[in-house]
Structure formats: C-alpha cells, structure tokens
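FORM 7B - TANDEM STRUCTURE REPORT

SECTION 1: FIRST PROTEIN
SEQUENCE AND TOKENS:
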Amino acid sequence: MTTPSRKKVLFLCTGNSCRSQMAEAIINARMGDQWQAVSAGTKPTGYVHPQAITVLKEIGIDHAGESKLADEFRDWDFNLVVTVCDTAAVECPVWLGIGKTIHHSFPDPAKAKGSEDEILAVFGQVRDDIAEKIPKLLSKYSQK
C-alpha cells in the first residue's frame, strides 16, 4: 500500500517572526503526517521572535525556524496558503503563487506591551489560538 503524499501549506504574513512561525511549528509537530508546513513573510524580519520560541517550548515543540522571504516559495505547489495577519493592524500580504488562499486573522503578539510576563502571556494566548483554530482549518482541507 502506498502512503498518500502530504499536503503543503504556507503560512504567510509580513515579518515571518511570530504568528506564521508558530503555525508552521505547530502543524509540523502535530499534523506532520498529513501536512508539510512552511512559513514566510513579504518583509521578513530576519529572526524568529524569542518569545515565540519560548511559548512553543512550553507545549513541547522545539522550533528552530528562520525568517524567510515569500519569494523563496513562489514555485512551490501549495494546497493551501493561509495569511495570518491581523487586518485591523496591518495590511495582509497577497500570495501570487500556486495554492488556494484563505485568511485567518491573529493579533500580532510582537506588538504586546507590558512586563515580560504580560508579553509572554500574549504570545501564549496567540499560540493557543493558532493551536486550536489552524488544525481545524486544515482538517477541512485534508479530505479535498
């Protein structure tokens, strides 16, 4: 019996330092048998936010991602492209490559203010929101 190939998903945002990185890490860790996840940004920051890495470790995911430019994936044949920016705060990038594009807004935890613990709590909330909503979203597309 042959194993069906994994579907490919791109998580796209502007900076590729927080939300798209967390989505990539969570999907590869929890749904890696069904989906190959990558992330990118239209204006990558050049780093993965340390608090994003910290909150991923809190749920047992060791992520050593890197901030990547969306153009690196232009020729990939994605099943799905998910933009994850908060449209109220920033204009979301447009994907011009292959793949059905959908938008799912998450607030940018990098804009959180307060003490280190308060900022970390915001990162944790966004992580939890991504961990709850994105797998459900991808499950809808697993059967297509």
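SECTION 2: SECOND PROTEIN
SEQUENCE AND TOKENS:
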Amino acid sequence: MILMGIDPGYAITGYGVVDYNKGRFRIVDYGVISTRAGTPFEQRLLTIFDGLTRVIEQAAPVSVAVEELFFSRNTTTAIGTAQARGIAVLCGARAGIPIYEYTPRQIKLAVTGYGLADKQQVQHMVRVILGLKEIPKPDDAADALAVAICLAHSGADPNALVVGGYQ
C-alpha cells in the first residue's frame, strides 16, 4: 500500500512516500519542494502545487497525510504555512485520494511511542523504521516520512493516536 506524508511549508515542503505491506516499510520516494524567498507568494504556492501534483501522479499513493500546524508566535509564518498546507490538501483531493491530518504530537507518538519526543528522536526512529543507514535529509523530508509512517501506524484513523485525551 503506497502512502504519502507531507510536511507543509511555503519555503520548503517535504514529502515522503512509502510502501507499507504486512507491517514492513519500503521507501518509494522522498524529498522537498523548495521556493525562493523574494518570489511572489502566488508563484511559490504554484511551485508547491506543481511539485506535489507531480509526486502524487508518479507515486500513486492510496492515501495522503498532512501534518497539522502548530505555531505559538509568528503569525505571518503561520498564515503562509497554512496556505501551503491548503495546497497540499488540495493536491490530494484533486487526485481523489483520501486525506488525513495528524498533529505533531500524534506523529511523534506513532513514530517513537512518545508524544513529546524531540526532533532528533523522531528522525532516529524514521531511520530505524525504514531500515536506513542515515537519517534522510533534509529535515523536512525526514519529517514527511514520519507523517507517512504515522498514517501507516494509525490505520488511517486519527483517533487511534489520541494522547491522554489530547491530540
């Protein structure tokens, strides 16, 4: 079963595609779609749309998962990232693929078994779960692979990953 995870951002959007079969993972593809600072914002969104559309067409995932946003300070960054996240959801919907959304805490729980794990713990477990020699780079691609692993481990049920009553 081909699954895709997306770590949205307007400067860098990470994507990770895995094949999950009988409890085993195989990497299909991963990487990032980058946009340049100073490029008109609508062109940055178009670049993300075109890139994700291309990955979805090539990989043909049966489901797509997108990380939900968590921002505590910078609302300007949050708004731009939310728009990039909308593009990611749109790409999956346009392809007729079910879209699932997971909080950072749910992703950490699914990948490490601990909802408050730090970034290094998550990346280490992504490497271990996928049987890689090194942590995938850049970080945004590793994060997207974590989202795909979360989708596989949740059985496409976001409620399966409720942590102590909180998502």
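SECTION 3: OBSERVATIONS ON SECOND PROTEIN
The mean pLDDT is 91.
The chain is about 45% helix and 20% strand.

SECTION 4: SIGNATURE
Preparer initials: ____
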